[in-house]
Each structure stands twice: as C-alpha cells, then as structure tokens.
Amino acid sequence: MRWPRDSANYALLVAILAILAVFLLYPIGLTLRGAFADNPVTGTGFTLRHIALIFEDPVLLEGLFNSLKVAAVTTTFAIIIALPLAVLAAKFDYPLKPAFNALILVPLILPPFVGAIGFKLMLGREGALNTLLGTDFDLLGQGRFWGVCTVQALALYPIIFLNATAALANLDPALDEAAENLGAGFWKRFFTITLPLIRPGLFAGGTIVFIWSLTELGTPLVFDFGRVTPVQIFLGLKEVESSAQPYALTLLMLALALFTYIVGKRLFGGRAHAMYAKASRAASHTPLP
Asked: Would the CA dihedral through 117, 121, 122, 123 be positive or negative?
C-alpha cells in the first residue's frame, strides 16, 4: 500500500523531531537536571547552590572570562583574515582563482587542534624553529592565549569567508557603480556601502566562529592553556558522579553563548539594508593588475 505524500512528509518530520529530541534536547535536559539537582548522585531536589558556587570561585570565573576573551579575539582575527579574501574572491579576477579559492577552504577539513599540534611542533621549545636556530625560545609558553586565538582563527576563518562571499555576491552592483560615478573611492565605498550591506552575513559566520571558539577544548589542551571553561569542564568530568560543577559550568556556557548571540543579533545581525540590495544582475569582476 502506497502512503499519501502528505503522510510520508509528516512521518519524516516526526522522525526528525524524535532524533532531535533524543540527541539534543535530552542531553540538555540531563545537564539542566544535574546543574540544579540538590543531590548530584541521584539527580533529585532543586537548588541554585551549584550555580552560586561558581560565582564564588575566582578560578572558575577567570575561566569564563578567558573563554569569552578567546572567543572574541578569535572571531576578530577570523574576520580580519576572511573579509579581504572574500572581497578578493567576489570582486576580482586573477590567474588560478579557482585553485586559490579551494586552498582557502582547506582548514575546514581539519579540526583546530590539528593546527595547534602543528604550531607546537614548529614554535614550541623543542620545535623546528629552535632546532634550526639552535635556540631555546618558548614562544608558545609565553603567549598561550594568543597562540590559542591565532590557531583557532586560522582554522575557522573559512566559515566567515563563505558567508561573506555569499553576501557580497548577493549585492546589487549598481549601488557600488553609482557611488563610484559620484567620485567615491574604493575604501569609502567599501566602508559606507558594502560593509553595512553584508553585515548580516558577517554576523552569521561570526556567530558560528564565536560559539565554536568559546566551546573549543582541543586547542587549549594542546597549548596547555587550562584556565578556560571547556578545559575546566573536561577536568571536572572525573568527579561528575559526586560533583555538579561540570553540569553548572556547562549550563553557564550554554547561557553565555545564547546571551551573546541575542545581543549580537540585536546589534549587528539585523535586517540592515541587505533585503533591499538584492542583485538584479551579476557583478562584473575587475582583473587584478
């Protein structure tokens, strides 16, 4: 017997919602229960004590603050890397452009901690640079925070690149041409016309990078940068059967990610003028000299 098309569609929807509930909502529910349970062993009762204890512990607060700093700096670095590359890909023609665009996306196939391992092999105390120069510099030991941010930005910038390139390709070239005819230079057109119009696209990519770097575990572990919340949660899992601290930290990290997303959406990710700037024709690419 052949099912009606509507029945098949509803069955598929129910199956997707069930999978979502089992693998996403249920783990979140367990985290909430663990964070608020008065008895962490049995998961019974209700208390805010576990959350309050985090705000009384300066080490845990420092971890939250460091995680936010890492996420903010990583996202900034990623935008600085990705935005010029997106403009280059969307507005200019040059030899071997398809191959170059493919190389830009290579970091997507590797997790950030793989790059961290490579950086450590090159710049660590026993890395290739010290071996080559016969020195004993500990570049990563002195700059673990900046090492974490740099490696994560180099690994995650393709996310912003893809969003920015799509946003640039969707702009109406007539706006840029009209400003150019009025005498506006490239940089003035970019900061007053292009950048405001692609802001929602940058926010979409930046949000993913921010949340990813906020919750990234592997890179801080490789750089031995332990005072960030993901590492503190990882180390706390050893005592998860008798302590609710990992649950409470996870809950705070989820709340922090949601709060920053809402604030960023309100400040940077609004409708802007993008919906009024859909391309009515394809933009012409300028050959690089």
From this structure: positive
pLDDT tens per residue, range 47-103: 888 888 888 889 999 999 999 999 999 999 999 999 999 988 888 787 888 888 888
* Cα 175 from Cα 267, distance rounded (Å): 24
Q: Are 93 and 285 in contact (CB under 8 A)?
A: yes
pLDDT at residue 274, rounded to an integer: 45
The pTM is what? 0.82
How far is Cα of residue 40 from the mean position of the Cα atoms in its chain?
32
Cβ-Cβ contacts under 8 Å for 221 (sequence gap 6 or more): 113, 231, 234
CB 215 within 8 A of CB 113: no
283 DSSP assignment:
P
Residues 6+ apart with CB under 8 A from 32: 251
Cα-to-chain-centroid distance, residue 166: 18
> In 3-127, where does DSSP find H-type helix?
5-20, 26-36, 49-56, 58-91, 97-104, 112-123
Q: Which two tokens stand for residue 30?
A: 């367990």
User: In degrees rounded to 5, what are phi and psi of residue 127?
Assistant: -85, 180
The Cα–Cα gap between 280 and 139 comes to 51
